[in-house]
Amino acid sequence: MSLFNTLARVDADLAAGRVPMARQRLRGLVSSFPYDLTLRRRLAEVYRLYGDAAEAGRWMYLEEDRREDETAAFEERYGSPARRMKALAWRGPEALAATAFAEGRLAAVRAARAGELGRPVDWDDPSSYEERAYEYPVPEAGGWTPMGVLAGGGCAVGVLLHLTIWVVGVVTIVD
């Protein structure tokens, strides 16, 4: 379906009160056309209908006339540059942005993440900027850790409880 036809459906959805459907269509369009700031603006307007300032701020983040309260809500919800990069759903170099302001905002977010990591990051390679899950320390070979003792004890209690329930069930059936 063409961009024009999908936007006509968005308008029809909104006129009929089908806000979730309009939002879904716009999210698809932003995914297909990440450089089109008018689509991002339309999506922000839909999120305002929901009263979701953070998502409205997300989609207006690249606009010079964005609302500061929405921007602050977005930055709070997506608290790190890595999360903001992912949330902005940008692809390609910042030079593809329609405005100098948007280009500057994108470059600032990318530079902040690169600064945290101490290496370059790329909008087209999410693995270059994604946050890593917490890595648990690996205990030394042969050593006992408090967490290991608790985990092993919990497993043992669970197995004993399960066997007790099973035996009681078997005894009840036999009687």
Molecular structure report:
This protein is mainly alpha-helical. Helix content is 65%, strand content 0%. It has helices at residues 3-15, 19-32, 37-50, 53-60, 68-77, 81-88, 100-117, 146-174. The protein is extended and about 75 Å long.
N- to C-terminal distance: 68 Å
Strand content: under 5%
pLDDT under 50 segments (min length 5)? none
Q: Mean pLDDT, rounded to whole units?
A: 87
Helical segment count: 8
Number of E-type strands: 0
Provide the helix percentage: 55-70%
Described by strand count, sense and barrel closure, the largest sheet is: none
What series of H and E elements makes up the topology?
Answer: HHHHHHHH
Structural class call reads mainly alpha
Gyration radius, to the nearest Å? 25 Å
Apparent shape: extended
Quick structural gist:
This protein has 175 residues and is mainly alpha-helical. The chain is 65% helix and 0% strand. It has eight helices and no strands.
What brief labels describe this structure?
175 residues, 65% helix
What is this structure's SSE topology?
Elements: H1 3-15, H2 19-32, H3 37-50, H4 53-60, H5 68-77, H6 81-88, H7 100-117, H8 146-174
Helix pairs in contact: 1-2, 2-3, 3-4, 4-5, 6-7
